[in-house]
Structures
1.
Amino acid sequence: MVFHRARAAASVVSGFLCFTSFAAHTAFAQSAPQAATWDRQVNPAAVQGDALFDHYRFEDGETLASVKIHYATLGTPHRDAKGEIDNAVLVLHWTGADSRALLSPTYTKALYDPGKPLDSRRYYLIFPDSVGHGQSSKPSDGLKAKFPNYNYNDIVDLQHKVVTQTLGIRHLHAVIGMSMGGMNAWQWAETYPEMMDGAMPVVSLPIPVSGRNLLWRRMVVDAIRTDPDWKNGDYTETPRGWIAGYGILRMMIDSAPALQQEVPDENAADKFLATNRFAAEHVDPNDILYSLKSSFSYDPQPGLFKIKTKLFALNFSDDEFNPDRLQILQTVVPKLEQGRYVVQQGTASSPGHYTMTRPDLWAQHVGAFMHWLGDAAPSAS
């Protein structure tokens, strides 16, 4: 059974300090408090909805009586002569985030406002909260460590169910995703090769999670699981292992030049570490544990030949999660039937992997991607 409920969005997310997304929090942690508060506002034009899928069976065989996938939409569906929606764009978030991060003023002004590449007057934009994230079913809802193990295939399958069964969309104009969402975009292009006009994975690679990307994830997972305070998921306070693991995350995810600017002395280091601790204490460790584990089986390499749609990959040269020195995009993308890629050069202030949270720095590439799909530049009038 599929249950669909839509409601108008609240203009502001309640509880600005109680961030549910570790990535969203750290992305804004370096800003002034006023800016952080402002950027947690959700576009008031967004329509919120929930889809329920009964007796859902995950890939590893575990089941859940009911899986809820929350989603938001922006814009109006346009129907072609056959009555089919032809302007839908699926936008996918990163690990630990949710649709609220993608509906913030930062994203709206850079991508969805009039005249921007994903002008919501022109496109029907869909923002699902992936399972395990945001307002979708997740361990912290009550099951804790008894929550079924999900992986990226389950994430994409549930996104597909929302698009096709809940929203009744047979064909997507585009799929765009950042980080985990970018990895999901690679999967969409492989799994449903005829279902979209194009896919744009941002800050991601079409290879298994490996090297430093695997090591930091394993280090964080092990730090949580081996902490006596974790208590097999039944902790009553934030395990210290997660707080230490969060520090590992920050060292990996920020660019070296950005950290050099932000942490010039001991006082700045104290502030940085205190901010990290505060952020870690406002994240549910079970949720992040499951989210990190879900990436371990990701491996699009065997199915790259299935990709028939236009694919535009965007990475950043100062991203330490997906190091450009490995030359993965340069090796893989030219082998695709319709592949293009850009590695945007980092600067002294660009935040490495977190450049994904600054769409104003890369919106022009989204515009180039949409133009490649045959869309004329939108009018700002």
2.
Amino acid sequence: MHRTLSTIGMVVLALALGAVGNSYAKNNHDGSISSSEVQQGFAISPIPANQLNLKGKNHDMVGVGSYLVNGPGGCSGCHSYPQYLPMGDAAGSNPAAGDPFEGTPSSQGLNTQLAANYNIMHYLAGGQCFGPFMARNITPDTNGLPQGLTQAEFVQMMRTGDDVHCDNDPTDPICSLGPPTPVLQVMPWPEFHNMTDRDLESVYQYLTALPSAEPCNTVADGCPGFSGLAAHQVAYAYPNTNDCPNPAPPQ
């Protein structure tokens, strides 16, 4: 009898905990941070879910891909230039916020999403310089492929550092920047090397779901100085607009 009651109690407790966990994972419409990587991935994507191309894609993998790209991967920090726009700039995702590195808004919640004005018009479109190297545009090309890479080629690049894009198209002007190197420089592919196949495929799925974008800065505009103080002391050639401020704010 006691064993039966104990078993019933454990089942009830498990169901209760499951209900709480499911509720927490699904109900983050108030801006709270979700316990689900899929839900959190869609919540933190600077490009809203209704603007992502999910046709023919695995919904959950796109969500996980966004979580990895916009969370621990930090891809936007290099591949969006500039990553953030000032408070009030309507070209960004949240004009009421600004650049979090500038302390705007003055406080960030411990349990809510980051308040930031992402430069969504040039999200992941590349253009930022790191010495003689330039971050690539990793939004889909005219064929819907990031850098023109198939999923297998993308995984190869992330695991080996092989510049597959320039192997396929050496005429791309970005391929002539910087000295010849055996593998991609600056790009932290060694950190991504040991990610699971599913994680890398999820990142690829998210990138292919993004709208295509053009960079603020191109090879023709040049790469003056290093990314950081020196780069912001020398003007780039691209125009000074709200969505492409020149010089860009510190990244």
3.
Amino acid sequence: MTTPISSSRRQHSLVSVRLITDDVARLVDFYERVSGMPVRWSTPDFAELETPAGRLAIGSTCTVALFGHDAARAADNHSAIIEFLVDDVDAEYERIRQTTTEVVITPTTMPWGNRSLVLRDPDGNLVNFFTPVTPEARAKFGR
């Protein structure tokens, strides 16, 4: 059972999700191409894609030791999906399919009201571009 957050407790904000990779430049290139947004490099081992909702950080495997030996492994994700809210997923598909062949699902309307395009990045992570299409889904995302 979860305990509700008291109004006197501090609220937390999700700031970023970090991907660990053996090839930062390759992932940066992929996310710049599919998102159409520039990635900001901090060091040769760390870069970030900044969106209005937060950041997608991309870190080299050499940074893992800073968190503890073997704390994360590159290209070993089997449980998370990185999701981007877009205005028109069908238009994004036409643009993105010119730059990637790793399409998992072409634009499909999901039971929860989002139209989704799912691909894999070069490390095998699932990436979902979606547009809310039902009234309930549009309301959830303020569309």
4.
Amino acid sequence: MAHHVRPAPYGDRLVLSARVEPRPYTGTWTPRVRGTAVAAYDTRTGGLRWRYARGGHRPVAVLTERDEVIALWDDGLITDTDGRTVRWHRALPDAAEWLPAQGGTGVLRPLGRGILAVVTPRRVTAYRTADGDLRWLLPARRGCAFRPEHALRRGPALLVAQPCAHAAWTEQLVALDDLGRITPDRTPLGNDLPGRPERVDVEKPLARRR
């Protein structure tokens, strides 16, 4: 193995397999959690392409988005790597209060169009996968909590359970897409990178949650 990226303040250690030189980024690979690291294996040969670890921490959930791997770590840090570099880091607040028991199941949820939803009991946070930019945040209703392990897809929408002790069942399920909560009276909002024209979906009204 050849060291590819120097250690970073977050304890990053991204190591490239010397066996895949001189063209380490061609072809396809699939990531797997291997102990305390995320490892990418060539889909054709099964050989190791690269390995990413963080000192003193382990990945609890991994999501593949195109040629990137998004990982949730046991300290509540979210990272994005493409095998060349660790592109961005984002820390989840209050992770120590819920992550050990929850285990990371269902926390990382792709919304499509380059947007990642991070579902935690207190909030849903959306990031743009291209650069980790925070796009929107939806807090849980007072007295309620989101259940990331019970979220599911229905077409373009992500349905997230939000159990409440005293609320109608219609208020205990939240529908989301890349633009936030789906409501009948939304107003336009875009998530494109700076310099690109904003996308406007003419099939339905877009909105910022009120």
